[in-house]
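Can you make up a polypeptide sequence alongside its tokenized fold?
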Amino acid sequence: MTSPLLHAPHYLLIDGAQCQDDSPAQALLEDPQAQPLYRDLGAEAAQVGPWLLPANPERLALADACVRSESARFAISYLYADGAPDLPDAQAHLQHLRHVVAMNSSRQRYYLRYADSRAFAALWAALGEHARNQIMGPLSVWSWWDAAGQRCMAIRPALANTPPPPSWPLRLTPAQFKQIIDVARLGELLAMVEEYLPDYLENVPLAQRWAGVRTASQWLAQRAIEPVPVRMAVVAVTLRQTARNLDDPDFEAVVRAAGDTPTAVLAWQPAAEVRNAQAR
């Protein structure tokens, strides 16, 4: 079978919430053919919600500029459809993805930011084949760039048996919901470090940042470290030290003594570096 990525995508899906400070993304939203999928929720929700736009070379160039930027790199998804693409069909299907229901004791309904590629990637990873088939609908491939700068693809599974009729909204088991929330929290933690402690991330590639926040978060969870400023500081130092700090008992002692204040964590240096500095 020919790879779908040998062909141009049929649609661009854009997360309006990430486009406020990005010129190429704003240009996509201002395109006359861009369709806000939250139009029925009012002007403000429409602006920050998902948008759907037929793809062409000019729009694809703008989309590629977005994924190379810091502010809108998770705002773009590339959608492929079987046969002759029909924009109203794709638009109607995506409306079904607006909500998910957590099948726990509360049965609470949540908005799903499926146009944020991080949220979609977390959802896709948590689902089985039938649910993946359901969320793809008329789409054959859903593609995006991940936090490590790699091109990813969700491909509609070919099921051996006819799937049951879709039931909306999508229902998630407690384990699936927890998996999605855990991934979302990793992204939020890294985003806070990028915003408030950018000096610690200087020259750290995207792939290394994502690996570092995963490693640091596991270390923090094992030690039940909860204060957000301290969690941010541990991630920042882990990225600067390429995780060497996490094996150092002195670092753990500093973290445990930090309370709610990250100052000492951020100032920590390995003993060898301190001795070298003193010897100069």
Summary: The CA atoms of residues 183 and 247 lie 24 Å apart. Strands lie at 11-15, 35-36, 50-54, 76-81, 99-102, 109-111, 139-145, 151-155, 170-172. The two ends are 63 Å apart (CA to CA). The mean pLDDT is 88.
